Amino acid sequence: MAPVFYKKIVFLSYFNAGVRAVDVRDPYHPTEIGYFIPAITAATDKRCVTVNGQQSCKVAIQTNNVETDDRGYIYIVDRANTGMHILELTGDARAVTLH
């Protein structure tokens, strides 16, 4: 966890719901303050499951990893070959890092 976010914001990967930024300054009342859901690309792999003997396939992102750096950038990686995204907080979410 980069110092700029320490005890302020945590980032959670939610697979097909992207990454979520949660304000944890009041640990008893965590509040979602931002999110990013990457779009699929031509490189995004199809994922298939078998249910009751029938195969069902879907193309969807799968944000799997999230990391931050001291400059305040957020890095997310997709395990369905969609790629890596480099993010930066803006607006009210960015203001949390300044207090």
Shape assignment = elongated
> Biggest sheet, open or closed, and with what strands and sense?
3 strands, antiparallel
Secondary structure class reads: mainly beta
The low-pLDDT segments are: none
Strand content: over 45%
What's the number of helices?
1
The total beta strand count reads 8
Mean pLDDT: 93
The largest beta-sheet arranges its strands as: 1-2-3
Description:
- The structure is a single chain.
- This protein has 99 residues and is mainly beta.
- Helices cover 6% and strands 46% of the residues.
- The strands form three sheets. It has a three-stranded antiparallel beta sheet with strand order 1-2-3. Strands 6-7-8 form a three-stranded antiparallel beta sheet, with no helix packed on it. A two-stranded antiparallel ribbon has the order 4-5.
- A hairpin with a 5-residue loop joins strand 1 and strand 2.
- The model has no long low-confidence stretch (mean pLDDT 93).
Give the gist of this structure:
The protein has one helix at 91-96; strands spanning 9-13, 19-23, 31-36, 46-51, 54-59, 63-68, 73-78, 83-88.
Summarize this structure as a short list of keywords or feature phrases:
single chain; 99 residues; mainly beta; three-stranded antiparallel sheet; 1 helix; 8 strands; 46% strand
Secondary structure layout plus pairing:
Blueprint lengths: L8 E5 L5 E5 L7 E6 L9 E6 L2 E6 L3 E6 L4 E6 L4 E6 L2 H6 L3
Antiparallel strand pairs: 1-2, 2-3, 4-5, 6-7, 7-8
